[in-house]
Specification:
The complex is a heterodimer of chains A (309) and B (370).
Chain A lengths: L20 H4 L3 E10 L9 E9 L3 E5 L6 H8 L7 E6 L2 E2 L5 H7 E4 L11 H6 L14 H13 L15 H14 L4 E4 L8 H18 L2 E5 L3 H7 L2 E6 L2 E6 L1 H4 L2 H8 L1 E8 L2 E9 L2 H4 L5 H6 L7
Parallel strand pairs in A: 3-8, 3-9, 6-7, 7-8
Antiparallel strand pairs in A: 1-2, 1-4, 4-5, 9-10, 11-12
Helix pairs in contact in A: 5-6, 6-7
Chain B lengths: L1 H43 L7 H8 L2 H4 L2 H9 L9 H35 L11 H15 L7 H20 L6 H22 L6 H12 L7 H20 L1 H7 L3 H6 L4 H23 L5 H13 L3 H25 L8 H19 L7
Helix pairs in contact in B: 1-15, 2-5, 4-10, 5-10, 5-13, 5-14, 5-15, 6-7, 6-8, 6-9, 6-13, 7-8, 7-13, 10-13, 14-15, 15-16
The chains are: A alpha/beta (309), B mainly alpha (370).
Chain lengths: 309, 370
């Protein structure tokens, strides 16, 4: 795998400072090197030798069809699935060398489907995000309280604070889970399909929160998105995956093209430039052979295709 | 302006905390009321005719309450003072310890049930469903029939048996990690096998009275419990419950499911195992002195959760009060309803618990999810 166009420099110190996105853009928050990730039940790894550098303080979106390995990559990055080979560096340090709570203070991950007990309150659920910051015998401190309040405010769920989780709508529940992840107060946050199954209102809310996290908290966010338009509009970088390998990556304007949509998603589509970034108008599905006519499978897994256009 | 907003939020949070605390206080007070009522009945009535005055005179007799000698007899197993009258003997050595054992057993069953429900994230889980009771029960039955000289060690042995059964359940359920559903299924399997062995044991007992006591024990009974049972159960109960309250934060995180607990930095399998160990110990302490009393560990956590919510600390606190109230209350029925015949309390909890469960099944849509 060749180096990509994204700036690639090891972070030298641990704590992310309050510097603006410009100053931090030259650093990588999360570095995957020749990563091989799979499930213990399957013989073949899902992600087979991929290299990825996630720039610090930016939003990186993973897109790709169902089963392309987006979630698996996310799990590999957070050491939820132990890589079979390769390594992941967080702030220049291997993620598997962190003590588990220590890692959870730096790297947050919200999975696609979450279930909380119906009978706890929103505030209690958000407070669970403070777990990695608390010692075994420690109870809630003032800084926990502050972080919980901030997270609740940032996710815009103040009015739900005392409601039981079981009484919330799907969209509200997702906002509360994101509040929990914010309360965890990490440098890097991985979100697995945070907008799938939500109505447009809540989808936009979630993406707004992601923007706020980047702009106000200098948080690095990596998220899996099914909606290409959302990726185009909100992400600083887009990574397109197919069959466990990266087809393209870079700023949305470069990555999201007609050719890529045909290659990766097997759809015929036009891409319109708008003030909100490139917008995709899907036209019709392509049969498998058509979409793969430009490149054979083996070529694609070995090298990144040249920038289309 | 912001300050005003903050203060409003604080006020609001305080009010909501007051509300949840007050529901917990309600559970506690209600439970204490039931417990006091049950105690009144248990002490006042029974096979031996005592007037109310005699019975309560004995309870609050300062000669006993402040007698070091008497307490040494109760708690350390020394001989009772010779000056005990028959009334004092009936009240202090028969009626009161039975209540005390009921309190300990009820607390243990309720708290361990709550813990098992949290770690399997299944409201239908209880020590019974996870095979723990049957494992512990088998050991107790073997001790009862063959090695009666090690009786004081029964909770430890029962905990080992329950722990072994739970370990077996874990091994069977293990497939790249466990899941709540597989745990419950494996628990049913192991429980069935151990239960069969228990029943098979009966055919090897020659002594009819042992069969009778084993039978009563299998149904779960506080019959003939006295200070010896208190002495057996108390230390293990205190230990297990203290540990349970230490890990409430961990329970809260475990209740969010494996994925989330992992992302919050918890070593899920290890923690689940350790917490289960606490619950096994607690269950064993109850089973060792009272046998297999069903439904308490299932119903009490459920009732408490409905009232005070799913926060582990409040849930366990509520169980600590409601468990004893329910069990001692049921024991009143077991002891006095068909006087002079005494039923095992497990039969009463089953008779009450079954319909309650049926009611739940009919009214709750998502029964089973914590």
């Amino acid at each position: 795998m060749q180096d990509n166009e994204m700036p690639h420099k090891r972070a030298s110190c641990g704590e992310s400072t309050g510097a603006g996105p410009d100053a931090t853009a030259s650093r990588t928050a999360l570095d995957a090197d020749e990563l091989v990730v799979g499930y213990p039940t399957a013989d073949e790894p899902v992600i087979d030798g991929q290299t990825l550098a996630v720039p610090e303080g930016e939003v990186t979106a993973l897109i790709g069809p169902n089963g392309s390995g987006k979630s698996t990559l996310l799990k590999g990055l957070s050491n939820r699935l132990e890589p079979e080979d390769g390594r992941v560096l967080l702030d220049g340090r291997r993620v598997d060398s962190f003590e588990s709570k220590e890692l959870a203070r730096k790297l947050g991950r919200l999975s696609q489907q979450n279930t909380a007990p119906d009978t706890i309150s929103v505030e209690e659920l958000v407070e669970r995000g403070r777990y990695p910051h608390q010692g075994f015998f420690e109870s809630r401190t003032e800084s926990d309280e502050r972080a919980v309040n901030e997270a609740i405010a940032m996710a815009g769920v103040e009015h739900l604070r005392d409601r039981e989780v079981g009484t919330l709508s799907g969209g509200q529940t997702q906002l509360v889970w994101i509040a929990m992840a914010i309360a965890q107060d990490t440098d890097v946050l991985l979100l697995d399909e945070p907008t799938t199954f939500l109505d447009p209102h809540h989808q936009l809310k979630v993406m707004q929160i992601v923007e706020t996290l980047r702009d106000d908290s200098q948080m690095t966010v990596v998220l899996v998105l099914h909606d290409i338009a959302q990726a185009a509009r909100y992400a600083d970088n887009v990574v397109a995956l197919k069959d466990g390998s990266m087809e393209a990556r870079g700023p949305p304007e470069e990555v999201i093209t007609k050719q890529l949509l045909a290659d990766v998603f097997d759809i015929k589509a036009t891409v319109i430039e708008t003030e909100y970034g490139p917008q995709v108008v899907p036209i019709e599905p392509l049969d498998d052979d058509e979409s793969q006519s430009s490149l054979s499978r083996s070529e694609r897994t070995e090298s990144r295709p040249d920038s289309p256009d | 302006m912001a300050e005003l907003f903050d203060r409003l939020a604080d006020r609001q949070a305080a009010a909501s905390r007051w509300y949840t605390d007050s529901t917990l206080a309600g559970v506690a007070l209600g439970s204490i009321a039931v417990l006091v009522g049950a105690t009144l009945l248990q002490v006042s009535f029974g096979a031996f005719p005592l007037t109310l005055g005699e019975a309560w005179g004995a309870v609050f007799d300062p000669r006993i309450l402040f007698s070091l000698e008497a307490w040494r007899g109760f708690l350390l197993g020394a001989d009772n003072p010779e000056w005990f009258t028959q009334q004092q003997h009936i009240v202090w050595n028969i009626r009161l310890p039975r209540i005390l054992v009921g309190v300990l057993v009820g607390a243990n069953l309720a708290v361990s049930g709550a813990i098992f429900q949290i770690i399997t994230r299944n409201e239908l889980a209880s020590p019974y469903i996870l095979g723990v009771s049957d494992g512990a029960g088998l050991v107790v039955l073997v001790v009862l029939t063959a090695f009666s000289e090690v009786l004081p060690l029964v909770p430890v042995l029962a905990a080992i048996g329950g722990g072994a059964a739970f370990l077996l359940v874990y091994v069977i359920a293990w497939k790249n990690g466990t899941s709540p559903v597989r745990l419950v299924l494996a628990g049913v399997i192991v429980g069935t096998v151990f239960g069969s062995v228990q029943r098979a044991l009966f055919f090897f007992i020659d002594d009819l009275s042992t069969v009778m006591s084993a039978q009563a024990w299998l149904s779960g009974s506080l019959l003939n419990t006295d200070w010896a049972e208190v002495r057996i159960a108390l230390p293990f109960t205190v230990l297990a419950l203290a540990l349970a309250f230490v890990v409430t934060k961990e329970l809260d995180v475990l209740a969010l499911g494996e994925e989330t607990a992992d992302s919050l930095g918890m070593p899920v399998e290890k923690m689940r195992f350790a917490v289960a160990g606490i619950a096994v110990l607690s269950t064993a302490a109850a089973i060792a002195v009272a046998g297999l009393i069903g439904f308490v560990g299932l119903i009490v956590p459920h009732m408490v959760r409905n009232v005070v919510g799913g926060d582990s600390r409040r849930l366990l606190l509520g169980c600590l009060f409601l468990g004893p109230a329910l069990l001692v209350g049921a024991d009143v029925g077991a002891r006095l309803a068909l006087n002079p015949i005494q039923l095992p309390v497990g039969i009463i909890t089953g008779l009450v618990g079954g319909p309650y469960f049926l009611y739940l099944m009919r009214t709750t849509e998502n029964l089973g999810e914590v």
